[in-house]
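Checklist before submission:
- one chain only
- standard amino acids only
- sequence pasted in full

Submission:
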Amino acid sequence: MNVLQRGVRSVLRKPIKSIILLFIVIVMSGLFLGAMASRSASIYTQDATRQAIGATFRIEGNEENRRKRLDQAMDVLGDREGSYGGVTHKWLENGADMVVTDNSFETVKEDDVKKVAQVEGIEEYNLITIATVVNPVNFSRIEDSDMDQSTDVGGVNLRGNRIMEMDMDVSAGKISLIEGRMIEKDDRDVCVISKELAELNHLKTGNLLKFNDYHDKEHSTIYSAEIIGIYETKQERKSIMYGDSYRPENTIFTDMSFPEKPSGNEGNPFYQYAIFKVQNAGKYDQVKKSVQKANIDWSRYDLIDNNGNIKNMTENFGQMDQMSMGLLLIVSVSGLVILVLVFLFWIKNRTQEIGIMMSLGKCKFEIWVQFLWEAVMISIIGMLLSFAISPIIAETSASYLAKETQTLRLEQQEQENTGTYIDGYIAPDLKIQDVEVHITKEMVLMDIGMISGILIIAVLVAGITIMKKRPKQILSEMS
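Returned file contents:
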């Protein structure tokens, strides 16, 4: 009888021990697959405060990804001064350091927006720049006489749009035109101003407004934009930052290319949002799925639908990626320890069998191979069974990790007491709606490799108890 035949008979002859090992392998394999699937899960969250309007989608930068890119750039720069990937590090005279990011680092990439716009079912798209403060050259801004203006730069804010009709404030009905027209995609060097600015400066459509960089009001280049429309506010619009430069009445809508010019960033725009209009509202969900398949780096963005739902990749969902790695490590170490103990117990209770085989001339290595073969047979069955239940384990573990990550994030925000960033970004109030996991062929192969590796190590470690003993010693233990 050869090693393989003896192994099969041994497994069938000891059903309880075989079932115990089978159960351990099923649990380990399932947890391995669950942890790996969690690392590539899609977490669907909802933030009703950021929902897109109507049959549209909105893309904006993902804050977690931004932090990661900033950390990566600082790892490259270290303590030295310099620039990398749109991040500049400087040392000040007082010994403190300063980190500055440029528009290329912050912007929603226009090339990515154009790729999404080509998806079937998308009728039109809009790009909206960040509120860009510039100096008003030939007109006065609206100011609060009771406010200390010494800390304000004395500017107005420009908001560029490719198609103004698709601007969020326009779509939401917060503003409406009282004179002229809105900005269209082929317009250049045009603007739409508030009724308050028009009345204060006695402006009308056709007039030219002049702007330049507020950092150098005396010498920077002056750019002009023609007034093509005047709007009035229908609903309350809040300032995104402190100071009259950002007050709603001082918001001037322009074509999407204009704000970068007077701010000194010509050729380097900062698009904060991209809005996509769905051609057929009845196919909204179908178009959404197609949009999510667009070939862009989705880890850089949040895709927000008209319910405020956001699809997050695990790498952008706080510490979920690290927690998944931690679960993999825990399962690996604990699984190895448990299997070593199981095989030690297994071998200890088979001393008589080992002694008999050795008395029949079987070498210790052959006996060890038999034990390994028994473990492999049981493990194959265990892994096959685990593949059937692993989707449930994966979804459960991913949901748990996502909720734990969200709890940690909220606790961290409370401790730091932060929520508003320099560009007016407000940390979202996300509610987890669903967690989607997929188990791939690569994950299955990795699972097989990890389980096999742990089994070999466990049998090897436990087998040392045989290898280090002499045949006479083993035979004496029989008696």
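Reviewer check: The two ends are 26 Å apart (CA to CA).
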